[in-house]
Every structure is written in C-alpha cells, then in structure tokens.
Design a protein that fits this description.
Blueprint lengths: L3 E4 L23 H18 L3 E3 L7 H12 L5 E6 L1 E3 L11 E3 L3 H15 L3 E9 L9 H12 L3 E6 L4 H9 L2 E2 L2 E2 L3 E5 L8 H9 L3 E5 L6 H4 L3 H10 L3 H10 L6 E4 L4 H8 L8 H8 L5 H9 L5
Parallel strand pairs: 1-2, 1-12, 2-3, 3-6, 6-7, 7-10, 10-11, 11-12
Antiparallel strand pairs: 4-5, 8-9
Helix pairs in contact: 1-2, 1-10, 5-6, 8-9
C-alpha cells in the first residue's frame, strides 16, 4: 500500500460532489457523526498499511478530525499533506448556496497556514496551493512566493494542486518558479483518471525533475465506480474486482504516480478500492480503458455540473 493515500475531501464536510457517497455515510451528518465516520476510515486505512493522508483548509473540519485522530491513536509514521487557498463557507449545511471560496493571496496564505499548523502542528509534511491554475495571481506575487519559500525553510515540502482543462500548462509553469535560485515547488497533486488523462505528460516531467506526484480524483469523483463504462466493468469482471479497483489500477500503472489518493467515505468503500493493489492490467487492457478519455473541456464542464449532496 506504499503508493496509496487517503484524501479527506468527502469526509470533512456534510456535502460534496462525489457520486455514490450518500448511501455510505450516516443518516445524520452532524459534526460528531462525520468525525466518527472519518476516524473509522482512517483506522481501516492505517490497518491496511496506508501512511499518507491528504486534507485541506476547505474540507470542512478535515484537519481537525485528522489531528484529533492522530492524537488519539499516537501514530507518528503518517505523512500528512494539506492545502490552502480555499475557505470553507458552507456553514455545515447540505443546501448551502456556496460551499467554498477561493483566494490565492498572501493574507489568505498566512492566515490558513497558521490555522493548519494550529490543528496539525509539526506533523504537517506537505503544504499545497489549492487548485492552482495557469492564470493564478500567485505567479506574479513575489511576496507570496517568498512566504511559501519560508515554509520550505521550516522543513515543509511546498506543493500545489491543479484543476481545470489546462492542468498541464499549470504544472509546467509552476515547476519553473524559483525563489532565491531554488525551485519553489517539490510536490504536485493533479486530477488524472481514465476520462481525463491530459496532464499525464506534464506529471511525468515533474516526476523526472524530482517532484513528488500525487493523483487525485482517480475515479472521476466516483463516476468510474458507480457509473462505470462497460469496458471498465468487463475488465473488472475478468480480474474479479470492482470497477473502482480497475480505475485505480490504471493510475498505479503510471510510473510517475508517487501517491494515489483514495476518496472512500466508509470502510467498505476503502476495502473495495484497496483491491486495486492486486490488479495488474495488461497492455491491451490498459489501452482498452485508456480509450475512454474525453476532451478536457468536456470533462471539467461535466464535473462542474455535479451536485453537492
């Protein structure tokens, strides 16, 4: 399980866009119920050998849930990554008009870095700019870049995550950023899956340059598991696993993928995901499922239309 990690996007708040999430969560999604659900999944992941957990300031109370779990269990061998840039504004409501607000500014970074440190302390290993895009103000904000470099001097690996149809452009642009003659970013987290693999070449280049590559949304927010195309279901049947395991196995087949994040919200979902570690896709099978790719603009438009439930 060395290359698998757990992402808390769908566990730290009551509403999210993952398909197939609702029937795996408690009927009541109060804070304590979601805390208990998060701890259950974290316990299952740790027992299975997963040692990377990814959170964000905008994932509701994910950092608080994670910090409390680490304190209670006493684990000191978990790599913790988190992100800044979005603020959670959903008020713990399922029907909120807006769930998160993005701002890549020096003030937002300093405030959220302090909040993250307050909850996770020295256990924070990687801190990432959340959903960096090629036109982000970060690229021209020298003061913000210098502040991020200060975190690197404190021993935190500085990274960024990407979203949108121009992920490849963003990855390449960000990997060129330097502060005082040193590359600023040493970790990148991007969406790569069978429907949207367009960032693959850029991630390979980042890996070759020494950055740690994390893959998010490997199951296209649950669509490749719950609404799996026929070819994915056929390959899954051959291997005796679920479609989710095939979607994840395709990511694990990419040598540049350092950590593949799972978005499970229950022990049962997680255990189904973990079957990916037993699946070795042949060249023909990989070609079959890779043929599912759609234009990035279409993929991201469809993702944006997913409801928060």
């Amino acid at each position: 399980m060395r290359r698998l990690g757990l992402g808390l996007a769908a566990l730290g708040r009551p509403a999210y866009i993952n398909v197939g999430r609702g029937d795996q969560l408690p009927d009541r999604r109060g804070v304590e119920e979601m805390r208990a659900a998060t701890w259950d999944v974290l316990d299952t992941a740790y027992e299975a050998g997963i040692r990377w957990v990814d959170a964000a300031r905008s994932y509701g109370l994910a950092e608080e849930f994670l910090g409390g779990w680490l304190d209670a269990r006493g684990h000191d061998d978990v790599v913790v990554s988190s992100k800044w840039g979005y603020a959670y504004v959903g008020g713990w409501r399922m029907d909120a008009d807006v769930h998160e607000v993005k701002e890549h500014s020096l003030a937002r970074y300093r405030a959220q870095y302090a909040e993250t440190r307050g909850l996770l302390g020295k256990r924070l290993s990687v801190y990432q700019v959340h959903s960096l895009t090629h036109d982000s103000p970060l690229f021209s904000d020298v003061a913000l870049q210098a502040a991020l470099a200060e975190a690197a001097d404190e021993g935190v690996r500085v990274g960024f995550s990407t979203s949108g149809p121009r992920q490849g452009d963003t990855v390449r642009k960000a990997m060129e950023l330097e502060v005082a003659g040193r590359r600023l970013f040493n970790a990148v987290q991007s969406t790569w899956n069978l429907l949207e693999p367009s960032v693959g070449d850029a991630l390979r280049e980042a890996h070759e340059a020494g950055a740690h590559v994390l893959v998010k949304e490997a199951m296209a927010n649950g669509r490749l598991a719950v609404q799996a195309p026929e070819v994915v279901r056929d390959v899954a049947a051959r291997h005796g696993v679920g479609p989710d395991a095939v979607a994840l196995a395709a990511v694990l087949a990419q040598e540049w993928a350092g950590t593949v994040l799972l978005g499970a919200v229950s022990p049962a979902q997680l255990e189904s995901n973990l079957a990916a570690a037993t699946v070795s896709l042949g060249e023909e099978e990989l070609a079959e499922v890779m043929a599912l790719a759609v234009p990035p603009e279409r993929y991201w438009a469809e993702r944006s239309a997913l409801p928060w439930v």
